[in-house]
TrEMBL record:
PROSITE patterns with a match to the protein in the record: PROKAR_LIPOPROTEIN (PS51257)
Descriptive protein name: Uncharacterized protein
Signal peptide: 1-22
Keywords: Signal
Length: 236
């Protein structure tokens, strides 16, 4: 059975998700309004991006929610990530859902029937049931570190694919913000009041990721040992 390889494939898909979202179609993000407060709107595009990354990394945690379209498929992400490799949340793909818990040293994954049967072969769901599959550092699931590692995750999300230019000012969920356009691709919206934190990557038809709960503690509840399957139990 291909359980750990299937999970590793999901990790790679999630890494691709970050790139696709950052390279989506440009959107203005709403009606224009005057930016004020923290002064970033007066800086150059490169200075704004640098300030946003510094502010984000200083927070140490974030909750990210969004959807990305890859071809005919939608991939949803609802993940809270904190420095030290802590992460908890879910990924959904084509009607299948994967729950993820990362403690910093172990990654636990729990899929629904649709996920296991699609990603690990028909009948996998009956074998695994509602158990969690665990992987430790050095296994095929090391790819998960690209999005359960806070610093790496933030850096990937804020790395442009082209030349960054200043866009319009607007509001994102009531917060004044300025848009940074990545060439003719997506728009990253950054708060112009308080800390200059990323608020939204708007990729139009290709996807959207919103950021919230910056700096809040991510609570991790590790599964009970009785609810966990080691990959060796699955013939890995």
């Amino acid at each position: 059975m291909r359980t750990t390889k299937a999970l590793a494939g999901v990790a790679l898909a999630l890494t691709a998700l970050l790139t696709v979202t950052a390279c989506g179609s440009t959107s203005t993000g709403g009606s224009s309004t005057e930016a004020a407060g923290n002064g970033v709107a007066d800086k150059s595009a490169e200075e704004i991006l640098t300030a946003a990354e510094a502010a984000a990394l200083a927070q140490g945690s974030v909750h990210i929610v969004g959807t990305v379209t890859q071809g005919a498929d939608d991939m949803g992400l609802d993940l809270a990530v904190e420095k030290g490799g802590k992460a908890v949340g879910s990924v959904s793909m084509s009607g299948a859902t994967l729950q993820i818990i990362s403690t910093g040293t172990k990654v636990y994954a729990q899929g629904d029937k649709a996920f296991w049967d699609t990603q690990a072969g028909e009948g996998a769901a009956e074998l695994i049931g509602d158990k969690w599959v665990v992987a430790t550092a050095g296994t095929e699931l090391a790819q998960f570190e690209s999005f359960t590692n806070f610093e790496t995750f933030v850096s990937q999300l804020l790395t442009p694919s082209g030349t960054v230019t200043k866009g319009e000012t607007s509001t994102v969920d009531g917060t004044p913000a300025i848009g940074l356009k990545d060439g003719d691709k997506g728009t990253l919206w950054i708060a112009t009041t308080g800390d200059p934190l990323p608020l939204w990557i708007d990729g139009g038809a290709e996807g959207s990721l919103k950021f919230s709960d910056w700096g809040e503690t991510v609570t991790i509840t590790e599964p009970d040992a009785a609810d966990v399957l080691d990959p060796s139990q699955l013939g890995q």
